[in-house]
User: Which sequence fits this backbone?
């Protein structure tokens, strides 16, 4: 009999050992990044990261504060964080004992004939009985092999990922508001340049009309000058549709009414600065970019899920107990004889599951490999975004400088042509051609300056954002 019991126990241990092999190894090396950015600026001339944003613009300050206070997108992200926090709290609580309480009143009626005959003399049988019970119960999974610890570790990693994604939403929101405010200011600068072009074209049309009435110039000159003025007016009208689009976008971003957004944008803007981009290293992206941090947390959660799945092959040790009162009369509930209790320990583990746990482990391993590739993708996406942003800032600055020089040269040429015309050294067609060449050059320079400021916002976002104050 002992030999048979020993054989059964040995067989069980052997089967358990077969089910409890090592989990698969999934390599997750840290991606190798270059030592420096290709378009990185000179470190001696770099500015702070926060200086890339229009923090001195009161419109941005007002709209950003309104968005952070009431944006539905941020509210949703905050709720996701709370959801992940609750999951982590639940996973941590699973490692602690579970204590409960219950009470009951039970009425029971039995048929004396169920005993199969008469009872011995002196023994009576109460066919109807009411019992009263109250118990305190406890159960505790000892978690000797760490399954619950792995699940808690995964829940904490998911909480970290939710936090990082909420930060990414905040950064994206501020970047979009900053870009929209910069676009709004750029429209104002473009409007000033177009109005200057319009004034010059109207002056040419007036002068051509005077010459036409004096009979010293054909009416064609006046018509061409008026056509140039009409072109400037159409460009002014086109700006209004861009303003409407920007206003609607800011209403969506800030969760404010159109009148409130317009009032914020009406605040006077001090002279804008174009600080040099900050110098940083690619490795900094691993700690600053919220999408990279979230992907790393997802990888940690996948690793914990694999560990928890592997630990399902080991036995589970449970302790349970109860202490309470059981009486068959309401007045006897607190008698010493009514005190009852129990204490039990149990062990349960897989013997033959026909590949269920192995399939679950394989699935968790595949999930970890997918999470690692997603992490690598996030890292190289961040690297590409930063390289692009540095390059865009450099080219946008060059374009802004070139268009500014172009506008200055063309305006100077237009003034010289006008002076030569007034001195009788040039004809009206020369003046009109010079004026047309100068038209829109100032607007192009203002638009290029706006793109240079917008590129700095892109770089701020690509480098992981940060505090603005």
Assistant:
């Amino acid at each position: 009999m002992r030999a048979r019991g020993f054989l059964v126990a040995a067989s069980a241990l052997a089967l358990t050992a077969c089910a409890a092999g090592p989990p698969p190894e999934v390599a997750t090396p840290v991606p190798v990044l270059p030592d420096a950015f290709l378009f990185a600026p000179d470190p001696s001339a770099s500015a702070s990261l926060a200086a890339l944003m229009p923090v001195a613009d009161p419109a941005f300050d007002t709209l950003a504060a309104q968005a952070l206070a009431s944006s539905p997108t941020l509210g949703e992200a905050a709720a996701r964080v709370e959801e992940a926090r609750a999951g982590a709290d639940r996973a941590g609580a699973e490692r602690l004992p579970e204590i409960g309480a219950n009470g009951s009143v039970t009425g029971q009626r039995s048929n004396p004939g169920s005993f199969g005959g008469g009872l011995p003399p002196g023994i009576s049988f109460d066919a109807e009985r009411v019992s009263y019970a109250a118990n305190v119960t406890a159960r505790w999974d000892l978690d000797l092999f760490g399954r619950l610890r792995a699940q808690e570790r995964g829940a904490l990693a998911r909480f970290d990922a939710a936090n990082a994604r909420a930060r990414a939403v905040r950064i994206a929101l501020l970047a979009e508001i900053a870009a929209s405010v910069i676009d709004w200011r750029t429209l104002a600068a473009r409007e000033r340049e177009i109005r200057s072009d319009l004034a010059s074209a109207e002056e040419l049309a007036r002068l051509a009309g005077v010459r036409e009435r004096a009979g010293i110039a054909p009416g064609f000159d006046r018509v061409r000058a008026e056509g140039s003025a009409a072109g400037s007016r159409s460009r002014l009208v086109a700006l209004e549709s861009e303003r409407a689009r920007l206003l609607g976008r800011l209403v969506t971003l800030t969760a404010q009414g159109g009148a409130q957004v317009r009032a914020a944008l009406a605040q006077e803007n001090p002279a804008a600065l174009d600080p040099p981009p900050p110098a940083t290293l690619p490795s900094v992206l691993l700690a600053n970019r919220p999408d990279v941090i979230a992907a790393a947390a997802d990888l940690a959660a996948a690793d914990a899920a694999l560990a928890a799945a592997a630990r399902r092959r080991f036995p589970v040790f449970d302790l349970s107990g109860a202490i309470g009162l059981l009486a068959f009369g309401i007045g006897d509930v607190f008698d010493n004889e009514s005190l009852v209790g129990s204490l039990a320990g149990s062990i349960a583990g897989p013997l033959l599951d026909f590949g269920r746990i192995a399939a679950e482990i394989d699935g968790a391993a595949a999930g970890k490999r997918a999470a690692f590739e997603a992490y690598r993708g996030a890292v190289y996406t961040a690297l590409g975004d930063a390289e692009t942003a540095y390059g865009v800032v450099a080219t946008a600055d060059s374009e802004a400088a070139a268009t500014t020089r172009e506008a200055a040269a063309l305006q100077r040429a237009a003034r010289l042509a006008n002076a030569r015309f007034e001195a009788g050294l040039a004809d009206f067609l020369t003046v009109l051609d010079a004026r047309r060449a100068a038209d829109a050059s100032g607007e192009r320079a203002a638009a290029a300056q706006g793109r240079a400021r917008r590129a700095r916002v892109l770089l701020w976002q690509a480098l992981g954002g940060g505090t603005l104050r």
User: Anything to note?
Assistant: The radius of gyration is 39 Å. The domain at 27-106+129-462 is CATH 1.20.1600.10 (Outer membrane efflux proteins (OEP)). DSSP finds eleven helices and four strands in the chain.
